[in-house]
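User: Please check token order:
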Amino acid sequence: MSADWPLPTAPPPDAADLAHWGEAVVAAVGQRDAATPAAARAAHPLLDLLGQLALVLQATAPGGVRRQTGWWGRLLGRDVEGELDARDWQSRLGVLLAQTDVAAQALREQSSRYPAAQATALDAARAIQRWADAGAAQLSTLPAQLQPVLAQRVDHLRRLAAVQQLEAGQWQLLFEQDSALLARSQRITETLLPAWRQAVLARRAGDQQQRNQQAAQLQAQITAELASAQARLD
């Protein structure tokens, strides 16, 4: 990749040209067809869908809807309406799980491109830094009146290289955050939710109190996983 970047040239003897020395590599970096970490971070539909799953779980908890409804709402019968709506949790849960799988796959495909973006940013930083180092090495060879011009240009190139280094770090952080979110999503949908659903469906058989406690514990674990995922993204 390094061979694709323009290599440093000798500083020109003219102050006007010297003020734009290194523009070739700066322009090449600017022409990259690359998304920014900010744009990639903008939307996290997977996290939103996991949050909706948590709401469905809360609604199916014994008395969960009634606890969420104030005394005035209970007086108006809103708790009864809410509990009737919560009875279709199995179908809603199935739809949300399907949507979650799609969102997880999309995020997995998107995050798979982050390492390449990180490598490109690092390579761009090295390319710009080469020009800065070359300019610094030749600073003393210029006439005294041109040295401040080149020194200012070298400083500018070093700042641009630092910006590329920062972008590379952002890609790395974004990759780690999304990997953690995907891991938590997989744990929720493939381990915790099936166990929770089994406990909820088994309430009618055996020790109902024990089943309720088991479902509540699993629901708490799912809520904790979601809170941890949200905290990493904030």
Summary: Residues 64-69, 71-81 have pLDDT under 50 and may be disordered. The chain is about 75% helix and 0% strand. The first helix runs from residue 15 to 18.
